[in-house]
Structure formats: structure tokens, C-alpha cells
């Protein structure tokens, strides 16, 4: 009990009864509140309900006390209205009527006062929240928003226990938590989205869960010192959790404020997502623009250069033939040299178009791959034989390291040849005269492995990751040192992806490179083929 208005009672008496616990023997007022009924103590000296407070009353000259409970419109006890007397006495019927009327008026007055205070408090909270909401809308990252959200709940709404969780890998992971919350609950652990945690349930259902009493079934995750909690969903992003250690300390109005706050936070998170999508789209567009520029620069060079050679040598042949009066005057050696150069330029054109078409077919799913046992050792030997003339012409030694047994991989034979041709072509192209290129086939656990190593120019290891992007070379454009579209390694990676394989490069500037290819190992040659396509 706490005294409200008692102008005629001694201050010492008021101070003595402040804080007395309500119960069946708590004088007239405490007992009236407990029993929700009038308590008329005509003589305090003999009334058993005053046994513990009789000496206190006597010391202040109080001999009788009539007390009636005051109720609000919901029939909840607000307090008591009491009359004290200096002599033992009982109320008359008229006095009882007056007391009852006073009790009713007091109930109305107290309830109106409390309602006004509640409205003022709510108005202040709404205004403070509205003023602070602008800070929320200025958040630029989800983590920054979580920090602002935490401050709004703890400082503006005055709930010290608060945590914000975001969804990561199908789990609700605590992003920020208030210091009092960490002190009371310890470290906040993440929880499965489909698990029993109340925050997860609020997230799954999209509905705020509010419990004002720990005794409510499954309301509060046990064990927990919290008695009141509210878990508010943040749309598809996560949840906001608020708790108090006292029962009934999160009123419904504040839960609605938390709902409004969470809805605004969700809107900001959607805006952040949208802005990030725009940034990603811009970066993608810029990357595609750079790729287009690289493509145009490379492809124009790779088409114009051989075409210029073909036209020039064809014109030279024509001039040679037209200038001769008899067949015997035609320089056959020159014709042979010109026709050979035309063939080389034509092959370069064909390689360029083949690379573009292969990449297009792989990326659109038009190239079908039959996955079956393929002997990588045999394919490596065939590729070495095919590229031996090119290596000899470049003054490069091509060495094949052969296994005593077959190296069976689950792959597509034509796909393996595409990989080997691209890797060997690059190795010979980028290896200077007098250098060496090795080709190896071996097994490594559950994988069949191909290696192509060279003593060529190599490159900076920090730039090796971009090698497998389309149109990427050590040099690009019409001023580059080496010919080629920059598609070979891109096609190689695409083919290997379709065969459940992988490729990696080890390189060092001026020392050479080694490309390693891993493919699933096939158990035996008779393994049933599996139809694969180049779709992603």
C-alpha cells in the first residue's frame, strides 16, 4: 500500500503504513483491498485485523477506521477510501451511503487521472518515436539499421533488454543485443528458422508474439529470467525481441509501437536491398560493357588480321598468275608459300569462330555431353601427337609423361579434347623458343587428373583469377603481344563445369604456369554413360 491523500492523518503514521503488504490482516485498508469488500473496524483495540498495527494506531490516537475498496470501470481495485475516528464508533446508514458515494466518485476521479496520465505518456512516446524514426530511415546498411533499432527500443521506448536477429543460412543470427540483455541472458545464440524458439515462430508466421507472464504456455524460451517478452517479425529479414524481468511490463500499446517500428524497419531494409540491387545491376552493366569492349577489340583484331592476310596473299597469287605469259613462268614456290599463309590465316579465323560458337553453345545448353569412361592417358597422347608439329615450329619441346595403366575419367571425349587443345595451344603460344611444355595424366584419390605445365612467360599470381573470364588475356586490344580471343580458358572452364570437373592454375611471372584439371574418376571402361547437357 501507498497512501495517496491523507491531509488529517499524522505524517509519521502515513510513513509507517507506506509499503505495508495487502492481506487478510493488514488493518482496514489493506484487508479491504485484499477481500475487495468494506472493512469496518468499530474498535481498533479489539479488531483482530488490526493486531499487527494496533500499537501504531494507538500512538497516534486512532480508535476506529472504516475502509471501502475503490474500483475502476473494469472492476479492478484502485485503492481504498477510509475514515478514521478518535473514539470507537460504528457508521450510521447515512454515513454508509455517503462513504459509498465518495468511493464511487474517487474511483471515477482516479481512473480519469490515470487515463490522462497514460494518454500523456503515450503521446510523449509516440512523439519521441516519430522524431527518432528519421534516423532509422537514413540507415545505409542492415547492420547500421539494427544498431539504430536497438537504440530506439532501449532509449526511446525504455526497454533495456532488446536484440535484433537477421536471417542467415536459414537461421536467425543475433546481429546486435543490448548490454543489459547480454548481462541478464548471457550470449545470444542463433536459432533455426524452423525451430521452437519464439523469435523463430514470430518470423515464420509473420505475427508478433506477446507474452506478459512467464507462466503462459511456451511463451518464453526456458530457462529465462524474463517474465514479459515481445517478438516482432521484420518481414523476410529477421525479428526484433524485447523483454522485461517483471510480469505485465510490456503493455499492448507499446507492442503496437513495436509493430510500427518493425514495419518501418522492414521498409528501410527493402529500400537497402533495392539500392544494393541497383548497385549490383550497375556494376554488372559496367562489367558487361567492359567485356563488350574487350570482345570487340579482340574479335575485330582476330578477324581483320587473318582476313587482311588472306586478301593480301590472294592478291599476290593473282598478280603472280596474271604477270606470267606461260605456265612455266609461274613461281610455284611463291604460290605454295602464299597458299600456306592463306591456310594459316583461314585456320586462325576458324579457331576464332569455333571458340565463340563453343562458348555460346555451352552457355545456352546447345552442346550435349555424353559422360562415359574416357582414358585421359590416351587422350593426352593423342593431343601431344596433334600438337607436335606446332611445338616443333615454335622451337618448344613437348614432353608427354605416360602412365603404365589407363587413367579412366567420367567425362565426354570431345569435351576432354577441347580442354587439352585449349591448354596445349596456350602453353605453346606463351612459351618462348627453347622452352618446354609437359602434359601428364594421373590419378589422385577419387579424381582423374590432367596437367599441362610450361616454362613460358607466366604471369602475376594475383591476376590469375581473371584468366577464366571471357576475353581476358595478359594483354588485350589491337596492341596486345599475343594473338587470340581470350575465350580458350573460358570455354575450358565451362566444359569442365558440365563434366563435374574443375581447373586451377599455378603461375609465376617469368617462370611459367601449370594448369591442373580434375575430373571424376570412372570405375571401369564399361561404366554406363550418363547424358549431360551444358545447362547451368
Outline the structure in words.
It is a single chain. The protein is of the alpha+beta class and 536 residues long. The chain folds into 4 domains: 11-120, Beta-Lactamase (2-Layer Sandwich), CATH 3.30.450.40; 138-250, GAF domain (Beta-Lactamase, 2-Layer Sandwich), CATH 3.30.450; 277-359, Helix Hairpins; 367-533, Histidine kinase-like ATPase, C-terminal domain (Heat Shock Protein 90). 46% of the residues lie in helices and 20% in strands. A hairpin with a 2-residue loop joins strand 4 and strand 5. Helix 4 (93-137) runs parallel beside helix 8 (252-322) and helix 5 (142-156) packs antiparallel against helix 8. The radius of gyration is 44 Å and the shape is rod-shaped. Mean pLDDT is 83; it is low at 474-482 and 526-536.
Keywords:
disordered C terminus; 4 domains; 5-stranded mixed sheet; 536 residues; Beta-Lactamase; 20% strand; 6-stranded antiparallel sheet; Helix Hairpins; alpha+beta
Amino acid at each position: 500500500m501507498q497512501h495517496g491523500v491523507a491531509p488529517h492523518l499524522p505524517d509519521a503514521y502515513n510513513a509507517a503504513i507506506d509499503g505495508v503488504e495487502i492481506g487478510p490482516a493488514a488493518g482496514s485498508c489493506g484487508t479491504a483491498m485484499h477481500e475487495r469488500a468494506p472493512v469496518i473496524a468499530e474498535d481498533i483495540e479489539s479488531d483482530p485485523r488490526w493486531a499487527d498495527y494496533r500499537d501504531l494506531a494507538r500512538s497516534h490516537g486512532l480508535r476506529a477506521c472504516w475502509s471501502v475498496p475503490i474500483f475502476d470501470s473494469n472492476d479492478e481495485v484502485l485503492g481504498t477510501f477510509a475514515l478514521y475516528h478518535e473514539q470507537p464508533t460504528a457508521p450510521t446508514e447515512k454515513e454508509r451511503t455517503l462513504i459509498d458515494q465518495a468511493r464511487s466518485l474517487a474511483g471515477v476521479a482516479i481512473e480519469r487521472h490515470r487515463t490522462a496520465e497514460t494518454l500523456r505518456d503515450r503521446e510523449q512516446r509516440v512523439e519521441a518515436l516519430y522524431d527518432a524514426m528519421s534516423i532509422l530511415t537514413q540507415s545505409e546498411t542492415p547492420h547500421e539499421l539494427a544498431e539504430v533499432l536497438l537504440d530506439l527500443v532501449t532509449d526511446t521506448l525504455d526497454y533495456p533488454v532488446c536484440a535484433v536477429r537477421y536471417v542467415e543460412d536459414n537461421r536467425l543470427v543475433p546481429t546486435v543485443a543490448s548490454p543489459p540483455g547480454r548481462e541478464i541472458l548471457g550470449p545470444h545464440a542463433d536459432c533455426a528458422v524452423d525451430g521452437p524458439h519464439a523469435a523463430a515462430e514470430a518470423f515464420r508466421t509473420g505475427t508478433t508474439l506477446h507474452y506478459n507472464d512467464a507462466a503462459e504456455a511456451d511463451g518464453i524460451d526456458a530457462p529465462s529470467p524474463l517474465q514479459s517478452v515481445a517478438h516482432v517479425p521484420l518481414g523476410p529479414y529477421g525479428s526484433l525481441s524485447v523483454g522485461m524481468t517483471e510480469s505485465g511490463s510490456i503493455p499492448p500499446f507499446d507492442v503496437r509501437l513495436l509493430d510500427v517500428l518493425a514495419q518501418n524497419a522492414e521498409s528501410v531494409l527493402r529500400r537497402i536491398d533495392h539500392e544494393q540491387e541497383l548497385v549490383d545491376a550497375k556494376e554488372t552493366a559496367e562489367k558487361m560493357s567492359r567485356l563488350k569492349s574487350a570482345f570487340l577489340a579482340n574479335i575485330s583484331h582476330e578477324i581483320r588480321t587473318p582476313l587482311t592476310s588472306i586478301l593480301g596473299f590472294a592478291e599476290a597469287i593473282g598478280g603472280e598468275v596474271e604477270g606470267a605469259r606461260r605456265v612455266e613462268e609461274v613461281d610455284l614456290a611463291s604460290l605454295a608459300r602464299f597458299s600456306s599463309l592463306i591456310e594459316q590465316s583461314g585456320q586462325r579465323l576458324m579457331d576464332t569462330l569455333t571458340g565463340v560458337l563453343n562458348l555460346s553453345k555451352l552457355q545456352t545448353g546447345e552442346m550435349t555431353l555424353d559422360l562415359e569412361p574416357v582414358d585421359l592417358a590416351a587422350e593426352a597422347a593423342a593431343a601431344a601427337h596433334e600438337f607436335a608439329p606446332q611445338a616443333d615450329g615454335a622451337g618448344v619441346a613437348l614432353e608427354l609423361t605416360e602412365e603404365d595403366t589407363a587413367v579412366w575419367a567420367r567425362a565426354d571425349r570431345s569435351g576432354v579434347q577441347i580442354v587439352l587443345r585449349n591448354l596445349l595451344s596456350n602453353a605453346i603460344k606463351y612459351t618462348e623458343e627453347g622452352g618446354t611444355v609437359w602434359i601428364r595424366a594421373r590419378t589422385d584419390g577419387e579424381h582423374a587428373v590432367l596437367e599441362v605445365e610450361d616454362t613460358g612467360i607466366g604471369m602475376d599470381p594475383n591476376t590469375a583469377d581473371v584468366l577464366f573470364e571471357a576475353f581476358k588475356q595478359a594483354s588485350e586490344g589491337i596492341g596486345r603481344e599475343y594473338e587470340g580471343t581470350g575465350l580458350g580458358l573460358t570455354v575450358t572452364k565451362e566444359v569442365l563445369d558440365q563434366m563435374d570437373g574443375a581447373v586451377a592454375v599455378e603461375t609465376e611471372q617469368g617462370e611459367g604456369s601449370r594448369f591442373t584439371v580434375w575430373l571424376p574418376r570412372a570405375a571401369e571402361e564399361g561404366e554406363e554413360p550418363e547424358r549431360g547437357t551444358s545447362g547451368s
